[in-house]
Amino acid sequence: MIPNTFVDFYGDQTRWFLGEVVNVKDDPLKLGRVKVRVFGVYDDIADEDLPWAQIVVPITQGIHKGKGQNLGILVGSQVFGMFLDGQNSQLPMVIGTVPKEGDTNEKTKANYPLNKVYETESGHYKEYDDTAGVERIKESHKSGTFYEMDKDGNMTIDATKTKARTITIISSGQINVTAPVINVNGDVVKLNS
In this structure, what is the dihedral angle of CA atoms 102, 104, 109, 115, given to the nearest 10 degrees? Predict the structure, then answer.
């Protein structure tokens, strides 16, 4: 059907918004929806009364029938979107995030923009550093235990910062260790067979 007026055409009354995420965990449908305090529109509405905003997800991070990657928008994120119902402003849809001053991760600053960091709320993080000559991959637990692959592919597993007492490798089959030189150091070395 051809619309009678331009107003009838979906999208002609689009209303864009900028806002701040105030709730990410209580979505009753567990779809990754968020509650957004839309600047200038929802200023006087209590957080619990805000509508749930749909999220546009990149095709590389989609989720379908429980498979794929869950969303990672955090409370406090500044977001950009549109209202699907135009001027009624009751059906918000978040299209993306807009970084603001204060959002920079300190771990990225020394090698910005070549060090990509993903850090969780509790402090676990992954780094992919593409800085020429020092390329590396590092994954770290919030306690300080980490593994890292350096520019030459050498791998280190380090639990000394946390004084972790145990690193365990378990297999229901064989464990093979092959190298030109194998060093085993320790105050006590036990071999049980």
Answer: 180
Specify whether the CB–CB gap between 83 and 89 falls below 8 A. yes
Distance from first CA to last CA of the chain, Å, rounded?
79
Asked if residue 82 lies in contact with residue 96, where contact means CB atoms within 8 angstroms, the answer is: no
87-107 pLDDT tens trace: 889 999 999 999 888 888 888
Radius of gyration of the chain (CA): 24
Report the candidate in 84, 77, 74, 60 with the shortest Cα–Cα distance to residue 32: 74
- Taking the C-alpha atoms of residue 122 and residue 50, their distance in angstroms, rounded to an integer, is 27
pLDDT at residue 1 greater than cutoff 50: no
- Environment class of 133 (CB within 10 Å of its CB; exposed 0-12, middle 13-18, buried 19+): exposed
**Bridge pairing between strands 92-97 and 52-55:** parallel
